[in-house]
Amino acid sequence: MRGVVAELGTLRPEDVTILDMEASIEHLSRGTVRHVDMLLVVVEPYFRALETLGRIVPLARELGIGCIGVVANKVRSPEDEAAIRDYCARLDVSVIGSIPFDEAVQEADRLGRALLDYMPTAPAVRAIAKLTEHILENGRTLLKKETHNGHRREAEGASEAWHGR
């Protein structure tokens, strides 16, 4: 898997590849994602999820991944979002989007349908669209990398774009 991921960016660098990985540190500890340009960590407002985030971020940094962002998922209240944001602040990583808890997700799943087809105006769909726009608007800045001694480094301004400054 590591070899395939590494080849994706060299064979067709103009393409965007999105990998939906298992919720664990396995892909980081094995170096599978060593060659990604951007790592989005989706985290729910639960202790175990935050604890996993606390292991993922340092491993990603060790691998030289310059763009790390967090997506708060299944957020039910301002307290949920605050808990995730506070934890991320301690890790010096930004929450770049928030997706609310949405019953429509479970309903669509029960029916075996894609959420977008089942309810295209669902709150979760709108939040994901907003997150996608943010990534696309800032992506060019975020993904302009320089290489220094074989390690990736964020280009000037990338950090500010990522953090929404």
Automatic annotation (TrEMBL):
Annotated SUPFAM superfamilies:
P-loop containing nucleoside triphosphate hydrolases (SSF52540)
Listed A to Z, the keywords are: ATP-binding, Metal-binding, Nucleotide-binding
**The keyword Nucleotide-binding belongs to this UniProt entry's keyword annotation:** yes
What's a GO biological-process term for it? negative regulation of cell division
Q: Which cofactor does it need?
A: [4Fe-4S] cluster
What is any one of the record's Gene Ontology cellular component terms?
cytoplasmic side of plasma membrane
Gene Ontology molecular function, alphabetical? ATP binding; ATP hydrolysis activity; metal ion binding; oxidoreductase activity
A Pfam family that this protein carries is: Fer4_NifH
**Family per record:** Belongs to the NifH/BchL/ChlL family.
Q: What is the name attached to this protein's record?
A: Uncharacterized protein
